[in-house]
Each structure stands twice: as C-alpha cells, then as structure tokens.
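Quick one, T. Sequence first:
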Amino acid sequence: MLFTRYTNKNFLELSQNIDGRKIKVKGDWYTVSNLISFSRILTPIPLILLHQQFGEAAMAWLIFLTAYIAISDYLDGLAARKLDQITELGKFLDPLADKICASILFIYTVYLELIPLEFFGVLLIRDSLILAGSFFIKKKHGKVAMSVMSGKIYVNLLSLYWIVAFFMPTQETLKTILLTLTLILMMFSFFVYAYRFYMIQKGSEFN
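Structure tokens:
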C-alpha cells in the first residue's frame, strides 16, 4: 500500500511537470553561466583564423580552443546549478551557443571538404526546427523549455565527430562510424524534442 501511494504520487508529479521536478528559474541576465555560454559562441572565430593563417603550426592553440568549447558546454550548466543561476536567458542561450558554435565550425569543415555538405544540411534543418519550436513555446507560454538529456548527449557526440574530422581527417573508418552514430542520435533527440513539444502544447508543465 505504501509503495502504491509512493508510485502514484511520483506519477502525478511527473504528469504535472514534464521535467519530473520543479526547478527555480530566475530572470537574471548577467551570470557566470551566461557569460560562459556567450564566450562559446565567439570561440570558433579565433580558431578558424588561426587555422587559416598558421595551419598546423598553431596546433597547440587549436587544441586549446577546441577543448575550451567542449569544456565550456559542461561548465555553464555546472555554474548555473552550483551558483543557483538557472535563468530564462541561460535556458535559451546554452543550446543556442551550441547551435551557433557547431554551425560555424561545420561550415568551415564543409568548406575544407572534411565533412559532407548533406550532413550539415540535415543538422541545420534539425536545429532550425528545434529553435522554431523553442520560440513558439516562449511566445505562447512566456518561458523557455529546458534542453533534454538526449540532446546534450547528441551535442557531445557531434563534437567528437567534428574533432575527429578536423584533427584526424585520414581516419575514414572512424569518421564513418561517428557520422552514422551522430545521425542516429540526431534523429532520436529530435523526436524526443518533438514529443516534448507535443506534451507542452497538450498542457504539461515544464521548467
């Protein structure tokens, strides 16, 4: 009986909030986490300029900047949680930074013919649809929906694919494997976002 009451209580909470629990979200703009997210948007610019100007002679800097992009995607979320700085802007800026950063880097690697143009086209369509859904939710409900875990895992795999394509362009087998896995997770995470969008429109609460 106790187990039944506990299960029913959790089911009710989950049905009321699609994220499983209520998270306190602030309206602040100037936070450490938002600054980190914004810096991630700018980082691809010096990376590309250094590669264009110096090539492999700037390898140490290229690796450093790439590492910062990857680590910052973890640090902004960590800072938001640890410093109690989860904000409406941050919920939007973090995934937006990922999408802008990825778009710039993938455009460059497509230009270098290291990544198929068709892959970038699929990536661009997916991200555009998710952004459009996010804008719609913001306009209708007055707040931004948080990213889902499958989307975060996909971003990590996407980053790994880009790193291998950019730094190890001759590893064709590894690139093909990562490309395939990235496409699978890309589609899976998109359907998770689509289902989340549907549930929010049906009235589910969200953070």
